[in-house]
Amino acid sequence: MPAHPTLERTPSRVAPGWGEAPPSLLWSLTSAWATDCKMNCRSEVLEVSVEGRQVEEAMLAVLHTVLLHRSTGKFHYKKEGTYSIGTVGTQDVDCDFIDFTYVRVSSEELDRALRKVVGEFRDALRNSGGDGLGQMSLEFYQKKKSRWPFSDECIPWEVWTVKVHVVALATEQERQICREKVGEKLCEKIINIVEVMNRHEYLPKMPTQSEVDNVFDTGLRDVQPYLYKISFQITDALGSSVTTTMRRLIKDTLAL
Amino acid sequence: METDLNSQDRKDLDKFIKFFALKTVQVIVQARLGEKICTRSSSSPTGSDWFNLAIKDIPEVTHEAKKALAGQLPAVGRSMCVEISLKTSEGDSMELEIWCLEMNEKCDKEIKVSYAVYNRLSLLLKSLLAITRVTPAYRLSRKQGHEYVILYRIYFGDVQLNGLGEGFQTVRVGTVGTPVGTITLSCAYRINLAFMSTRHFERTPPIMGIIIDHFVDRPYPSSSPMHPCNYRTTGEDTGVTCPSVEDSQEVCATSFSTSPPSQCVLTATKALSQTPAPVVTDTLRVPTAGLAFSHQLSSSRLPYQPAALGAGSADLAHPVVFAAGLNATHPHQLMVPGKEGGVPLGPSQPAHGAQADQERLATYTPSDGAHCAATPSSSEDAETVSNGSEGRASPHDVLETIFVRKVGAFVNKPINQVTLTSLDIPFAMFAPKTLELEDADPMVNPPDSPETTSPLQGSLHSDGSSGGSSGHTQDDFVMIDFKPAFSKDDILPMDLGTFYREFQNPPQLSSLSLDIGAQSMAEDLDSLPEKLAAHEKNVREFDAFVETLQ
Predict the structure, then answer these.
(1) What residue in A sits closest to B194 (Cα-Cα)?
(2) Per-residue pLDDT tens for A81-101?
(3) Any chain A CB within 8 A of the CB of B175?
(4) B498-542, pLDDT tens digit by residue?
(5) Quick one: angle between helices B380-392 and B349-356, nearest 10?
(6) Distance between CA atoms of B386 and B350, rounded to whole angstroms?
(7) How far apart (Å, rounded) are the C-alpha atoms in residues B474 and A87?
(8) Which domain of life is it from (chain A) (predicted)?
(9) Chain B residue at shortest CA distance from A101
(10) In this predicted complex, what is the ipTM?
(11) b/e sequence A77-115, b meaning 16+ C-beta within 10 Å
(12) Residue in B38, B54, B134 nearest the CB of A87
């Protein structure tokens, strides 16, 4: 399976019962969960209530919209430190279960990567049998080289968290109303996302050729998003799985 | 003060702003075309994609935008505005959105033009791409084509928000600070359209829900003409994109279908967006499509070719789009001028001759007897018919714009005809249509057959057509007597042909035979309370029924 470089490094599923977290994840998690300053990391939280079959499309809509804003064309470095940027194409995607259309970057690789992780999230939600609460996090980070034996540090600078609440509907009429309502809600979310994007807050500065892999994900063929990782967790109403994971992480660290 | 900005930067900035304005217009208009947009990413820079985004340039739109800008750039007090409005087939229009690209005085001296401003403009365009899919007008524009079209207008100067009705909302797409000012892109959109959402456009006729304040007279004379949001690639006329307002010539390129009564067929006409000429509304008598016609034969659509109108038959091969979804539940609803198959009066022979072709009778498609010439875009049968009829079409000098349904061979049941009355309410087309009296229905009392010049037709006219439609006394109609092959009609009263004719069509729905032609809408409304009272009596039954559905 041609793994997307970012995701390969990141099982990043902090739901209980999953495997050990790799050290880089540990670092990034602790840095993300640092109580006060998250190292200039801004965090945005969105919440949606959807029906089971709408989970996938709703998540894809949000993630793609964020990544649309956080992707550029491929850089081509020339001498003297200048570079030119490729072109990013876009395409409209109609949702089947929601009255909604979103715009995504025209990159099949990126779409596949997102669909994969969203599919896993949807399955985890379905199998959890809990209240149908879960969340996905899209985190943009920068890599900072560390000396051996420590691996590179991942410093997030922006985290988008989408909390999902799955509802079950009984009648077809309710589902129809849900289609439209969720469509309208997603419109609001897109407006929120755009608002945040346009604050023009911190963005990593454009890297030199040697540093580009610390800032951007250069593994895709046609576009170049900022380095990102996606994780998800299935939560109880009180978020109790979070504590379980913390415990596990500490255990893992000690086991190192 | 622009002294800090060197001349190269200033030039660059002006160029960026100019192209940003042009690209903004492209994105907005393309988002309202009614189609999904898809462009490709390219890893190698082409050098021609502004802001590193693949945004196609529609030449007409660029031309309009440049015309509006007239060499100027958005500046303080001079905003570039793109107005998106909706226009129905009856000429009512309504502003939906106004997108404004404004400049204010707040400067950001620190920012680097060639790098940060450019990238931020690129980000703003991406945001615009996302936001244009999110406003209510997007979903409307995706469904345009049949009853309404979306138009755009670009103007420069002061923003005029009056046409948006009360309570319009604004969304800010974003801002970019530059050394000469801050560029702001925002959208003000009408929201009370939400009550007449796309749902309503499709399903429910707003009997009472027509919100009059939608149709405000334009307070400002349009300084620039409205343009339709449509863009046909060369040679392509999908019929899905809205037909251009300006360039439709024919009054109606109707289409015809033999679908069963429950499915009222509408055809998209190129002339749809034209304001209905009085000619059309007064004289057009368009029968509800296929209401009484079965589709036991292959139900191809015969797009009507008004060859006799003088428009060359070659031009009229417009693919036909049926708004089937519109009328699945409301067969009365949407009869728009020229949507139904009809044939011009007077010159009846052309299609007549086509139908007269006996070999084709067995597979003849429009059993309702629409003697339409068919365009090649329909099924094979229609094609042969078309070829046949085209051959016989004789250009006639006398063109009448009365289109009536011809009595067909198989028609025996009364067909209700719909008269397109011009209701005096906006969005009249959504109001339930009135039906004509049966007596006036030429289907029931077919008119006399006119003088025939077609040799074939003459040969078919039998004296005393067996069974069949009788009373061919009116001028406008031609009776084709159907003689099924190998059947004799002189022995039994009920022969194959008669049997076929008798049972060709399912019985008329009682609701369609109601004589409510004389009622106006006001009377309809008046009778509502009684109907409601009657329904209320049966409320329990309805509730029980609804329970069973859940």
Answers:
(1) A184
(2) 788 889 999 999 999 999 999
(3) yes
(4) 777 777 887 777 666 555 554 566 777 788 888 898 888 889 899
(5) 130
(6) 10
(7) 68
(8) Eukaryota
(9) B133
(10) 0.80
(11) eeeeeebebbbbbbbbbebebbbbbbbbbbbeebbebbe
(12) B54
